[in-house]
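Dear U.,

Please find below the material for section 3 of the report. The protein was modelled together with zinc ion; I have listed the sequence and SMILES used, followed by the predicted complex structure.
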Amino acid sequence: MSQSGDWIKVQSGSTTGWVANWLVSVQAVQNTPAKPAAPPANSAPVPGIQVAVINADNINLRSGPGTQHNVAGQVSRGVRLPVISRSGDWVQVSRENGSPAWVAGWLVSFVDQPEPPQPPQDDKSWLPGPQPEPGSGQEPTREPDKEYIPEAKLVDVQISEQSDRTYINIVSDHDIEYNTFTLSNPFRYVVNLRDVYLDKTPEIIPAGTNLVQQVRTGFSKDPYISRLVLDLKQAARVKVSLSSDKKALTLEISKISYSDGLAGKNVFLDAGHGGYDNGASGKNGLREKDVNLDITLKVAEILRKQGANVFFSRSDDTFIDLYERTRMANDQSADVFVSIHSNANPNTAIGGTSTYYYAPPAIPALYEQRDDRRRLAEDVQRELVGALGRRDIGVLQANFAVLRTSIMPSILIETAFVSNAEEEALLGAEDFRQRAAEAIARGISAYFSGQ
Ligand SMILES: [Zn+2]
């Protein structure tokens, strides 16, 4: 950090002079006190919370946002502390003992979450199921569970095709409790049924429709889950509906369309970080904020050519508060909010692409949009994984501020990891960024076309 960079020229009446920028920020703090924020229950960083990484040796923690406040302790380089709030250039963090303290924002870098959340379990990890008794001749996944067999049975799986759409009707004799997710490379759609016994359902059900090759079945225990894996012939959209008596689940599988979806749509693009907040930094000096901005500007260009109205939280290297970002999008009545980031992890071997949305039952306004939020995330994640060829970490839910405070369907994209040397090099390359931008634009287009 250059010494002159810490000083700012100011004017007071007819006199000009120089003042240290950390004193300027202290003044600003007095005019706009930080909003009170409760510290987390413990200091362990959790996904969805921004983490400040200390970038200097033995720096002071203070009791308030400014050098006039008492020194409350010291932290050494590399320590990671969850961010509670910000005030001017100062950052309130949760100390390792759980108590809050303040640190100068220019002495830390910010990363979005310390560990990637667990991706959805890949179907291969539990198929085949329990090993058969020697000589029993039973299929490995079909051995009856001697300890526990659910009362509910799967009574039928019907497959039909109508004007290019495949319909799969899954029928049980009890209420169906289910969840679903998609996998790419190759494209699969997975339906988990809680506490349903497969009974006489075949292990492989040929489909032979335009979009679905076959349906494979299997189960796992603790908890007891039966799984149907649809092997898709191409990327497809799957609409799930549960019958009013909750005993039949219908999957409507249709082609993904990219046509005419974008004309007149308001798309808000949010390039992550900016200004003094570099985001994550790579070993070779790549800064996340620069990658995010470049990809964002490329996405905007593609979307505008297809008739979308594009808005930005930032279109240059400036710092913008997280809540200001969603306030802008909410004010502009954006149809979607797309936040573009690059990931980081202390384990530099970790790489891959992930997309987050947030729609918990506890927040009804978000939960009402859960299908749209998730579909937007799935459409973009699928295109990104296909275009970039990095590990598919998947579509995940996370309580990021921008996802929680946006009133329209919103996603946060982590294109790849700047902390991974191979992906840092890719993220620094023009063609990789262009491919990422085209994939994001295609995903947004598919989302609108599928509405
Ligand atoms: Zn980020």
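For the text of the report, you could mention the following: The domain at 266-449 is CATH 3.40.630.40 (Aminopeptidase).

Regards,
Y.
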